[in-house]
Design brief:
Length: 64
Amino acid sequence: MEVVSDHQHSTFRAVYTVRLAGRVYVLHAFQKKSKQGIATPKRELDVIAERLKRDVEIHEESEK
């Protein structure tokens, strides 16, 4: 899920998941600065993917 907020002509985004046993893991938040339309930059998506993988592992370990 992605939360988007506009403030003083800038766009901010927070990407998170709630799919892990009712827990919310905030994966990444950043200021949107893309010059190529509304697409999220690949480097931001890479950070999100890496953190999601890490948080799934942490979650699974804590459930044991």
